[in-house]
Amino acid sequence: MNSIGEACTDLKKEYDDCFNSWFADHFLKGRTNDSICAPLLRVYQNCVKKAMKEQNLDFDEVSKDLLGTPQEKKQPQGS
To answer: What angle do CA 37, 40, 41 make, to 5 degrees?
Structure first.
């Protein structure tokens, strides 16, 4: 799957590859320290935030944790 921003797709692939390798080679063997991919994740997240801003998407709005709250089943404003 591509990223939200075309410029971020290669960064997403790099992070996904790192995560999948960490998951198989470390996590499944009981080693849960996931810091190995953290630098790639930060770069990818910054790219996504920039792409969202360019598309006028509010990062705070889309990152709200609504599951299990009264807001979960409410229709979004402006819909």
So the answer is: 80
